[in-house]
Amino acid sequence: MLLGAAFLMATSAVGPGFLTQTTVFTQSLGASFGFVILISIIIDIGVQLNVWRVIAVSEKRAQDIADALLPGLGLFIAVLVVLGGFAFNIGNVGGAGLGLHVLLGIPAETGAVIAAAIAMAVFLVREAGKVMDRFAQGMGLLMILLIVFVAITSAPPVGEAVVKTFIPDQVDMVAIITLVGGTVGGYITFAGGHRLLDAGVKGKSALPEVTKSAVAGISVASLIRVFLFLAALGVISKGLLLDPSNPPASVFQQAAGTLGYKLFGVVMLSAAITSVIGSAYTSVSFIKSFHRSIARNENWVIIGFIAVSTAIFISVGKPVKLLILAGSLNGLILPITLGTILIAAYNRKVVGAYRHPLWLTVFGVLVVLVMAYMGGYTLVQQLPALF
């Protein structure tokens, strides 16, 4: 169960955007991107430990914690999370379709329908939670093995990567914020925490297990990020050019030829379909406490969430304006939700006699301030594009 929650969080983070981000930043920063990954891992662990511990101790979901502090705040956060999760799920479905297109040569739209049907099938069985955990673990391990193979094949300059991870030529703050938002932003922050709660792993006595699960989740996502970085670095260090229309596919193809391109299809499909499941499950977990009928029919609501996302992708493709707005809102979700969690950590009505570690609080406040600034800046910059 603890491993299932960790993999659900990790595979929710590793979607089509994750693969593209990692490749593009490696192309622009070279070996110095290792430093960005290192800093983002440290921040990610701090964020997840704050969030998961308070959820476990309070025995409440994030929206219920927010409502306990300020009535109506929970609904506001739920709307933000569901909007972001829904919009990006359209992209996840499209990524799954692209993966099947690479593997089988079928149209991306047809692939999206097949992938969505697989994701929905997970929630049709009686023990949907256990099946979801097993599916996330299986896909996560498959992605790790394939990306490690491609990383070895590309023969990256590992020594240089290690040195530049600690002594970078340049530091890109935007890259750090982007990686943090992509790994623990929006709904992803709560995927594992809510899963543990639903599985009955809660209370002060469960904190050691919750901490292990949170660190494991970040470790899995980071392991995938590191090996994908090394794979891309190996290709780039040889002076080979990446296709700007699909950088991650180009890395796999340049490293391992036609086989590599097919392996990219498997990785893209695995990354996208697990993100579809994680996004749908976590988004619905934010609204099921508002009405008993949603909680009673949770699996069917999740299936509907996936079906509508797929229908929009097939009928109109990716709605650019919605994705732009959702991306900007996603940058603001983390400081709002993490800020709420930090306040709740010191509210006896929420956590009782629990004493939150001071270092986690300080760490969390710094993340809130930095992410709020960057999220606000990005939203202001992109608003003109919406009108």
From TrEMBL:
Per the record, the domain of life is: Bacteria
**Membrane-crossing segments per the record:** 29-47, 68-88, 100-123, 135-153, 173-193, 214-236, 263-287, 299-316, 322-346, 358-380
Keywords of this protein's UniProt record, alphabetized? Membrane, Transmembrane, Transmembrane helix
Q: Does the keyword Ribosomal protein apply?
A: no
- InterPro entries named among the record's database cross-references: NRAMP_fam (IPR001046)
Q: Which cell locations does it reside in?
A: Membrane
> Where is it mainly found?
membrane
Q: How is this protein positioned relative to the membrane?
A: Multi-pass membrane protein
Whether Membrane counts among this entry's keywords is yes
Protein's name in the database? Divalent metal cation transporter
Tell me what organism the protein belongs to: Pontibacter saemangeumensis
